[in-house]
Design brief:
5-stranded mixed sheet; single chain; 434 residues
Amino acid sequence: MTTLPSGFARARRWLRDHPLAFDATLAFCVLVAMICGSFADPGKGHGPTFGTRTPGAFSVLLMVLAASALVLRRRHPMAVLAVTGVFTATEYIVTDPPAPVVMSTVIALYTVASRTDRPTTWRVGLLTMGILTVAAMAFGSTPWYSQENLGVFAWTGMASAAGDAVRSRRAFVDAIRERAERAERTREEEARRRVAEERLRIARDLHDVVAHHIALVNVQAGVAAHVMDKRPDQAKEALAHVRDASRSALNELRVTVGLLRQSGDPEAPTEPAPGLAVLDGLVDTFRNAGLPVEVAGADRGPGLPAAVDLAAYRVIQEALTNVRKHAGAGARAEVSVVRVGATAEITVLDNGQGSAARRPGTESGGDPAGGTEAPDGGGHGLLGMRERVTALGGALTAGPRYGGGFRVHAILPIEARAGEPEPPGPAATTGERR
């Protein structure tokens, strides 16, 4: 069953969707009101009386024309105001007492005020008020100070004020709506930015994982190929290391790529991200690959943030991978993790004698900050490490050691300050390995 409020709501929506029909209905209502008012005699006693006068044919014609003009008030507001104003002034000049044609002018003036700016409303409103009030005072039989003449001034003034108020409220609502839409777009852009940052982080993790394990697989596969005929036992051991390294690479890739799964996909792995807690296992993989690694200091006390813990692990992993790839035969590495105040310092040293392939920034004449790639197509390892460290508010320096070898030194704040990177020190401008 249709209720009265719902019926009104449907009618309001229909009229809003059909503005010409609404204006025609309004014009008809104004015409009825003007005709009814034309039968009223203002009188001199206790208010107007009805039935004592009848509007003339000319007055009826002006009322019909003025009401008809209101149908086009949205499309041509200024023209409709001018037409209704002329009809009203004519009625005041020709007829006495005049018919209330001014009702149509009041509606037209409200429309102009609600659809133009405030200066236009002031100019047009004052002009209309002045012309009609003067016409009513000058050509009517009543005194100039009569309430009918003052009513013309009051009604036209209220029409201008009401139209200006409606226009201001409409502009306010539009501004709020625009602000909400802008905020929605900003949220979408922020979400896209976060997705891009997350993809960059995942890509960095994939690079670290693949570079580390593929380097180990390459080394062990070369060893197996070299000793396959003469020492099959050692070849089997090397192939076992290849299998373990490839299995570890696949597991880490599965964990990392699992972050890209959408809702509804199979459950992602729950294995935690690697950190300094598994540093011994990382070092053992390099020792099995033939790189002697000594852990001089490994402060793994509680309270290290997860992001800092992961960054420290990745720095050590990438630095040892570089040592294994570029330091040359007989190289040894030393790893140190030490807390100094509110920071954690990670140092990886080696005594290798690698050539230009280890230091592309100095030997190849490129950017010493590591922007030039190595001859083997590398050049992204230390760059990725620096991005990871500076993203947490730390600093990373890398360069050759005095007397031979290479040194990677990272300073990570215990309380990660994402988005406040510390510029690298002067040592960061030395040559870099990858």
